[in-house]
Write a structure and sequence with these properties.
Distance between the termini: 57 Å
Shape: rod-shaped
Number of helices: 6
Number of strands: 7
Structural class: alpha+beta
Helix content: 40-55%
C-alpha cells in the first residue's frame, strides 16, 4: 500500500484542493483491482484531519479499455474502408425504403446525376441514359429495378451485381455495379 502512504503524505497543511490518483491493489483472492484514491485536508471540531477516500473503479477501467479497443477497431475499419474506397470510383448508400441515395464517393463525371435531390428511380434512369453504353442500356435498366434489387438482397442476403460498359468521357470501360 505504498501508494496510499504516498497519497496521504502528498497532503500538506497548505493544500486547499485535493489529490487524486488511480492505482492497483491485489485482493485477498489474488485478483488485481483498480482503485481511485482521493485525499484532502478537512477541518472537524477535533481539529485538522486528512480525509482519504478509496473506491473500486474496475468497471470504469474496463469501460475505458473497452472504449480504447472499440476506437482501435474503428480506426482499423476506417482504414480498410479508405483503402476500399480508393479502389472504387463510386460508393453510394442506397435506402431502398425511402428511395434516396447518399453519395460516399463519386467521380466528377456523375456529379450532376447524384447531386440532385430526386428519387432513386429518376437517378437510375438518368444514369442509364447518360452513361451506359447503348448496347447495355436495356439490361442495366432492368437490373436497376428497386423491387427486384430488394427481393434479391432479401432472399440471398448478400450481394447482386451486373457488368456493363460505362462512359468515362469519350471512352467506354467495363465496370461492375454491386448492391450489397
Amino acid at each position: 500500500y505504498g501508494i496510499i502512504d504516498e497519497l496521504i503524505q502528498s497532503v500538506t497543511p497548505e493544500l486547499t484542493g485535493f489529490v487524486e490518483r488511480e492505482y492497483r491493489v491485489e485482493g485477498k483472492d489474488g485478483a488485481v483491482h483498480h482503485m481511485s484514491g482521493f485525499t484532502t485536508n478537512i477541518t472537524v471540531p477535533e481539529g485538522d484531519r486528512i480525509l482519504f477516500l478509496a473506491r473500486n473503479i474496475d468497471e470504469r477501467v474496463a469501460s475505458r479499455t473497452s472504449l480504447k479497443n472499440l476506437n482501435a477497431k474503428y480506426e482499423q475499419t476506417k482504414n480498410a474502408l479508405y483503402a476500399l474506397g480508393s479502389t472504387y470510383f463510386g460508393i453510394y448508400y442506397v435506402n431502398l425504403d425511402t428511395k434516396r441515395i447518399t453519395t460516399i464517393r463519386r467521380g466528377n463525371d456523375v456529379r450532376s446525376i447524384f447531386d440532385e435531390d430526386i428519387l432513386l428511380e429518376e437517378i437510375f434512369e438518368k444514369y442509364v441514359k447518360t452513361l451506359v453504353h447503348p448496347e447495355d442500356k436495356a439490361k442495366v435498366a432492368e437490373f436497376l429495378n428497386i423491387e427486384k434489387i430488394r427481393d434479391v438482397l432479401t432472399e440471398k442476403g448478400q450481394r447482386v451485381f451486373i457488368e456493363y460498359q460505362r462512359s468515362f468521357g469519350s471512352v467506354y470501360k467495363w465496370v461492375r455495379l454491386y448492391f450489397q
